[in-house]
Task: structure prediction
Amino acid sequence: MIKYYTFVCLLLASISASGQLIINEVLYDPSNDSLYGDANGDGVYDQEDDSFIEFVNVGTTNFDASGYQIWDDTTSGQLRYTIPQGTWVPPNGALVVFGGGTLTGTFGNAVVLKTDSAYGMSLTNSGEVIAIKDSNGNTVLTFDSDALSNNPNESYTRYPDITGSFLQHGDTTSVLFSPGTMTDGTPFDTLFVVESIAVQGQGGATSISTQGGSLQMEAVVSPTFASIQSVTWSVPSSNSVATISTSGVLTAIGNGTVTVTATANDGTGIMGTTDITVSNQSVGIAEAHNAKNFSIYPNPANDQLWIQWSGNTAQLNIYALSGQLVYSTTYKGESVDVSQLETGIYLVQLSGEEGAYTTKLIKQ
Ligand SMILES: [Ca+2]
Ligand SMILES: [Ca+2]
Ligand SMILES: [Ca+2]
Ligand SMILES: [Ca+2]
Result:
């Protein structure tokens, strides 16, 4: 009988969706039995304060809920709450609006708000269709409580979450509501994703024009509230113009233009790029630099190569004359096994905080 009733209710329910945002759960009738209705966790039952609407952003980008309005009825209702400016919901993340009270708990680390009215959202058990309007006043979501049970003493939730139809929460789990989490208590996502990355050289620099010179690259990640602001730096592996460190220090190794890429570390794959022009490099006729006592021996070398270097730990790269990187390691003073290199001429480059130095190696 209960199942039959639920089935009829689902047929009657008038639920609409709006692009990225859906209503996932509504508590318009918290239980007045003891504290079974204390959805906001403040230790007090209050019909208005404990009422809530749970939204979920079903899009793949952060959702701007600023200015969205909650009306307690599509026709005769009033505006009960306007979501404040700067309210964003992460992809697959939840936004919960309570009627009021002292919000106590983590609510799955969802974005949680409450109205500033003593009457909360003024949701009733019947005769109203909750309306959500966007910041332009267009109705984008509705929830008809009348078509569902009139006196559930618990919430209505989509089941399964996000994709399912509305059921009484207690029909899905042993609890009566789950503000900010899925019905089984699993949190929704909380990661605000990167949407764009702007890349430039420090101070807007677009070139390196000194021998072995370097340029600190900068990445500006948007939005500023993206959860993971760090990026991974890269240049094309086959390029013969510059190398880049994990901290974004671009170091010249040859003349030309190199595309520098910063990739978001949050799994979105969002990238930003810029081109840097490198000039005045004399790597084509490589010569030893005496700075930092940089030298290599023996030269020509057969299998083991020793490097003299008075600087700190440095990045050691060996390039073919074509510019192809053939060996790369963090050099800490040990010998380098070059036995696998084919016979020929190579460029050995050490780069560190002190700068970058390049010399020619003959492999025999
Ligand atoms: Ca309460
Ligand atoms: Ca009302
Ligand atoms: Ca009731
Ligand atoms: Ca929920």
In short: The first strand starts at residue 21 and ends at 27. Residues 191 and 227 are 6 Å apart (CA to CA).
